[in-house]
Amino acid sequence: MAQQWDDALSKARFEFRWDDQFNLALDPDTARDYHDETLPATGAKVAHFCSMCGPKFCAMKITQDVREYARDQGLTVETAFDKGMEEKSKEFREAGSKIYQKA
């Protein structure tokens, strides 16, 4: 039973199903309250990122993006990852190889 609950919560988290995550929490009201402290807008309940990493650094979102990219390109996930890393490395070099860029 505990494994099924954990699996359901993990799947809801990975799929950004916020209401399911809240409902599966040990304390749903507190889970909602914590979420709403940083992302109170109604749209945040359907966002595909959380306040911890934001939209550009969300590991779950990046994983979904890589899988989608692989599917669209007809590649394996591993090949898509390698190709994406090559593209980002090239982009980094062309931008001057600087970690911090002016906004």
From TrEMBL:
<dbReference type="GO" id="GO:0009228">
    <property type="term" value="P:thiamine biosynthetic process"/>
</dbReference>
<dbReference type="GO" id="GO:0005829">
    <property type="term" value="C:cytosol"/>
</dbReference>
<protein>
    <submittedName>
        <fullName>Phosphomethylpyrimidine synthase</fullName>
    </submittedName>
</protein>
<dbReference type="InterPro" id="IPR002817">
    <property type="entry name" value="ThiC/BzaA/B"/>
</dbReference>
<dbReference type="Pfam" id="PF01964">
    <property type="entry name" value="ThiC_Rad_SAM"/>
</dbReference>
<dbReference type="GO" id="GO:0051536">
    <property type="term" value="F:iron-sulfur cluster binding"/>
</dbReference>
